[in-house]
């Protein structure tokens, strides 16, 4: 019995099953993904004297949309203005992110469902680390896209402007336009998704650590009882 207790208590803490509370938090996190597909990840608006009512463009997980009214299609207007300064048109086929981004988010949902049913503490750590990489790469990819569009201007453009990078966050003056760039509801939903993943990891780790300490305390008590009732004999 003593040997079995030793083996159990000193098992790798990371191989221990995630706690029920951690699994519930992971499961709840999935619902934020639905919202992330419904709302824009990022919104950009372009204001100038010619456009006091700003041109607006929204980036979703799987598409690019401009604001549309009876009198104006903002994405078409933005592409027309970009043509004059030599910028490539903003077309969905130019963004492979609209293919791999939904796939990546769906993969996280599958990993979480697996962790809810079979997951260990190690699985929770793997998901949290992968999501960190995913978030950092997505931010870098977005910034790289902005940099590329502002720095690869056609030399034959009718209007010459200095090379620029549209803002990733905040407001920036570009030529006669004030450009505002801010996260939308989709980005907030993915941030909540990540926060719940990390909350589940903290809960799973603390629960496993507390259980391990309790088991070690029981083992020490059993060892002391054995020594009290079965003292070693010395020749």
| Number of strand segments | 5
Mean pLDDT: 86
Could you describe the largest sheet, including whether it forms a barrel? 5 strands, antiparallel
* Distance linking N and C termini: 27 Å
Number of helical stretches of at least 4 residues = 6
Total domains = 1
Low-confidence stretches: none
| Beta content | 5-15%
**Sequence of strands across the biggest β-sheet:** 3-2-1-5-4
How much is the radius of gyration in Å? 27 Å
Helix content: 55-70%
- The H-and-E topology, N to C, reads as HHEEEHHHEEH
Given the helix and strand composition, which structural class is it? Answer: alpha+beta
What is the overall silhouette? elongated
Would you summarize the structure shown here?
This protein is of the alpha+beta class.
Q: How would you characterize this protein structure?
A:
The protein has 235 residues and is of the alpha+beta class. The protein has one domain. The chain has helices at residues 2-9, 20-38, 74-85, 97-118, 121-151, 185-229, and strands at residues 42-47, 55-59, 64-66, 170-174, 177-183. A 5-stranded antiparallel β-sheet has the order 3-2-1-5-4. Strand 2 (55-59) and strand 3 form a beta hairpin. It is elongated, with a radius of gyration of 27 Å. The chain starts with a helix and ends in a 6-residue tail after the last helix. The model has no long low-confidence stretch (mean pLDDT 86).
